[in-house]
């Protein structure tokens, strides 16, 4: 049952940790597995019992309280790489009565701007960070003009609570107090902090526990980022709430080798795994019978899928690939949620097979009605589309489908905007009173307190189906992207493009949501058009600034972009016009059809080490450049025989973050070298990366010779931050960052 959230008798998540620690038998409750060995079984891991997590969290709280100026309710930025240190820091802030604000460590210019915006927007009092980040982050603290940067002793697994200090009693926490701020992953220029109260958190954890059928007999495995709502709440806090162990690994490790995560789930006999749809697609694409010896997924009873549109095709592909390894189709758990509702909103019953519905595409998109279609023929002809059911509303959550124009409920089977009301629905965004009034305090059927989600869907035969978004928000791989941000990058990318005249939208290609771009040319740009150069500039801008790949780019004649009378871009009309062929297009570029992720390269032919060994010592640096150029050309899907410029940045070549992780995995495999996850970002061009690799690899490839280069001096910790700070010095000084 959803708990009574009255002040009297309320238990916070900190008190749940206290309960777990009191019952602890000493076994590791949380383990973080390092991706530094040939197999999970042979690798290293950090492990803490519930009591150890409590003690290290208390050490963080004690250090915070010694600062003196940290008042109850103060917002504290929590900056950690993946690992158990973050968990102790997060709970330490709660023990001290402060409000943690989890964020990733900034690595690039856009990351630093977003970081600074969050720090200023939240009005943070300071930072709790990992030891290796303390020095690099101090200049950023000075940039916002106040606060402290604290690296607590509990970040190091070898440092328990200081000797002689008494255990710390948790600060009194009520259900209406803000527990943490969850900054949305949307616009890089204006992320908003969702205020999750302690009452919201406990209510949603109870809803998830009941919906998933959790018990202390469960075991979970999780790779999701700790600063994301799904990774934080179900990945880290649900185990504390329910008292079952969790095995963790870094998101970058999953992206590089997704089958390693399934190996982890097999190794710990996980009963619960989860992630966005793209995670299951990523695993299915890398599946190969000879790559998974001994894999056993038979213990998985819940494999939840949420945070982005669920593709039935992906579910079927994953189930087919891993059924020989014990995975059951009935384990799939399709769900729907938002950070604004803490996390979870709807889901089915455990071990209930996914509900897949085939509907007439035109009736759904054009008329807003769910009309059954014949699946076998309809999908092939483009007439039908498949939708995955997302179960029923969480216990205690009211959910309605509403005509946004009339503010009235729609009939069953009709598409409407999803409105919600319940104990897990948060009070709104930090410091956004006007937006909160417009979004979180609507009236329906004479009752107040409803929140407009901006999502569209319908209810049919007791099942909820999500069909799209009322607004233009684009979701790719579980991350939100605002089209206006991407449009700014697009029309600023080349002088031949008209300022303010671009439309960016989500477009479904081979049942995957991808990015479509249309942009107007200036009259001068049309007259002297170099279409390949303009399209390359647009591709590079989308990749460099937003870490996305554009799937379709169309250049249009001047004054032909669909717009409203007031001058706003009609993105739906742009999308539909592109699909129907009604736009006045001068040139168009389409990504090669195929998989969402770059396909694996053929293993035919000599590998990197053989080609390097067959090359004269003086030419091996150039050979490394050529090898990287060939692989980048493959990842960027350039025309056969076309090699990219070695001096161009990786994002300028149209690669996104997933492609760069794939490149790093290729380098590790071909050269047999363990690489830092940030290496490619520290050496962001083919030439610079080849030079760095030559310095690392040359002593093992080249025999001792006069021309051999000296081994380079290892870079300092987090050099990417220092480099970006230097690049942003003038910007920060002017106060325009963020």
Automatic annotation (TrEMBL):
<dbReference type="Pfam" id="PF23024">
    <property type="entry name" value="AMP-dom_DIP2-like"/>
</dbReference>
<dbReference type="InterPro" id="IPR040097">
    <property type="entry name" value="FAAL/FAAC"/>
</dbReference>
<dbReference type="InterPro" id="IPR045851">
    <property type="entry name" value="AMP-bd_C_sf"/>
</dbReference>
<keyword id="KW-0596">Phosphopantetheine</keyword>
<dbReference type="Pfam" id="PF00550">
    <property type="entry name" value="PP-binding"/>
</dbReference>
<dbReference type="InterPro" id="IPR020845">
    <property type="entry name" value="AMP-binding_CS"/>
</dbReference>
<keyword id="KW-0597">Phosphoprotein</keyword>
<protein>
    <submittedName>
        <fullName>Siderophore biosynthesis protein</fullName>
    </submittedName>
</protein>
<dbReference type="InterPro" id="IPR006162">
    <property type="entry name" value="Ppantetheine_attach_site"/>
</dbReference>
<dbReference type="InterPro" id="IPR009081">
    <property type="entry name" value="PP-bd_ACP"/>
</dbReference>
<dbReference type="InterPro" id="IPR025110">
    <property type="entry name" value="AMP-bd_C"/>
</dbReference>
<comment type="similarity">
    <text>Belongs to the ATP-dependent AMP-binding enzyme family.</text>
</comment>
<dbReference type="InterPro" id="IPR020806">
    <property type="entry name" value="PKS_PP-bd"/>
</dbReference>
<dbReference type="Pfam" id="PF00501">
    <property type="entry name" value="AMP-binding"/>
</dbReference>
<dbReference type="InterPro" id="IPR000873">
    <property type="entry name" value="AMP-dep_synth/lig_dom"/>
</dbReference>
<keyword id="KW-0276">Fatty acid metabolism</keyword>
<keyword id="KW-0436">Ligase</keyword>
<dbReference type="InterPro" id="IPR042099">
    <property type="entry name" value="ANL_N_sf"/>
</dbReference>
<feature type="domain" description="Carrier">
    <location>
        <begin position="622"/>
        <end position="697"/>
    </location>
</feature>
<dbReference type="InterPro" id="IPR036736">
    <property type="entry name" value="ACP-like_sf"/>
</dbReference>
<keyword id="KW-0443">Lipid metabolism</keyword>
<keyword id="KW-0479">Metal-binding</keyword>
């Amino acid at each position: 049952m959803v708990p009574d959230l009255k002040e009297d008798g309320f238990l916070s998540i900190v008190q749940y940790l206290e309960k777990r620690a009191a019952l602890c038998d000493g076994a590791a409750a949380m383990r973080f597995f390092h991706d530094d060995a040939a197999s999970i079984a042979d690798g290293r891991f950090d492990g803490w019992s519930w009591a150890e997590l409590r003690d290290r969290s208390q050490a963080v709280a004690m250090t915070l309280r010694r600062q003196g100026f940290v008042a109850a309710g103060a917002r504290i930025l929590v900056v950690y790489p993946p690992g158990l240190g973050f968990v102790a820091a997060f709970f330490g802030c709660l023990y001290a009565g402060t409000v943690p604000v989890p964020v990733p460590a900034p690595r690039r210019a856009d990351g630093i701007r977003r970081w600074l915006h969050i720090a200023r927007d939240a009005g943070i009092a300071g930072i709790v960070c990992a030891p290796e980040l303390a020095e690099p982050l101090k200049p950023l603290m000075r940039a916002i003009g106040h606060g402290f940067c604290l690296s607590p002793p509990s970040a190091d697994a070898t440092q328990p609570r200081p000797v002689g200090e008494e255990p710390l009693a948790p600060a009194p926490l009520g259900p209406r107090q803000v527990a943490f701020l969850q900054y949305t992953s949307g616009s890089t220029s204006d992320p908003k902090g969702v205020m999750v109260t302690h009452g919201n958190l406990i209510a949603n954890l109870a809803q998830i526990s009941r919906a998933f059928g959790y018990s202390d007999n469960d075991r979970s495995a999780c790779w999701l980022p700790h600063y994301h709502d799904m990774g934080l709440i179900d990945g880290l806090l649900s185990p504390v709430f329910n008292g079952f162990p969790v095995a963790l690994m870094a998101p970058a490790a999953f992206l590089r080798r997704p089958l390693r995560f399934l190996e982890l789930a097999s190794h710990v006999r996980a009963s619960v795994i989860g992630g966005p749809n793209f995670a299951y697609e990523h695993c299915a694409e890398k599946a190969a019978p000879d790559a998974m010896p001994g894999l056993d997924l038979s213990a998985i009873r819940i494999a939840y899928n949420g945070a982005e549109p669920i593709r039935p095709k992906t579910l079927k592909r994953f189930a087919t690939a891993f059924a020989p390894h014990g995975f059951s189709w009935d384990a799939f758990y399709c769900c729907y949620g938002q950070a604004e509702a803490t996390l979870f909103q709807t889901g089915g019953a455990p071990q209930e097979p996914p509900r897949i519905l085939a509907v007439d595409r035109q009736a759904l998109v054009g008329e807003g009605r769910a009309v059954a279609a014949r699946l076998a023929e309809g999908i092939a002809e483009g007439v039908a589309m498949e939708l995955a059911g997302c179960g029923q509303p969480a216990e205690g959550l009211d959910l309605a489908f509403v005509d946004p124009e009339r503010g009235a409920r729609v009939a069953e089977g009709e598409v409407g905007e999803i409105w919600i009301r319940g104990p897990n629905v948060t009070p709104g965004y930090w410091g956004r009173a006007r937006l909160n009034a417009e979004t979180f305090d609507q009236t329906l059927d004479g009752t107040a307190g409803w929140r407009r989600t901006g999502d569209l869907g319908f209810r049919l035969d007791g099942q909820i189906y999500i069909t799209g978004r009322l607004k233009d928000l684009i979701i790719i791989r579980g991350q939100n992207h605002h089209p206006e941000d991407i449009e700014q990058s697009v029309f600023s990318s080349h002088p031949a493009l008209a300022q303010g005249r671009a439309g960016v939208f989500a477009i479904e290609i081979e049942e995957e949501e991808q990015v479509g771009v249309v942009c107007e040319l200036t009259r001068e740009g049309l007259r002297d058009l170099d279409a390949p150069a303009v399209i390359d500039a647009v591709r590079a801008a989308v990749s460099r600034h937003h870490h996305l790949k554009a799937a379709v780019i169309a250049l249009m004649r001047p004054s032909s972009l669909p717009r409203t009378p007031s001058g706003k871009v009609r993105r739906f009309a742009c999308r539909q016009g592109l699909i129907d062929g009604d736009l006045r297009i001068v040139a168009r570029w389409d990504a090669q059809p195929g998989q969402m992720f770059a396909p694996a390269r053929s293993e035919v032919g000599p590998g990197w080490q053989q080609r390097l060994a067959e090359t004269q010592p003086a030419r091996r640096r150039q050979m490394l450049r050529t090898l990287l150029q060939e692989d980048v050309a493959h990842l960027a899907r350039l025309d056969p025989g076309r090699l990219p410029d070695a001096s161009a940045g990786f994002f300028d070549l149209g690669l996104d973050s997933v492609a760069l992780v794939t490149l790093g995995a290729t380098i590790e495999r071909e050269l047999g070298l363990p690489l830092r996850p940030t290496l490619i970002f520290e050496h962001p061009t083919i030439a610079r990366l080849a030079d760095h690799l030559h310095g690392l690899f040359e002593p093992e490839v080249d025999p001792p010779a006069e021309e051999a280069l000296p081994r380079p001096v290892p870079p300092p910790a987090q050099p990417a931050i220092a480099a970006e700070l230097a690049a942003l010095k003038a910007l920060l000084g002017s106060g325009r960052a963020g």
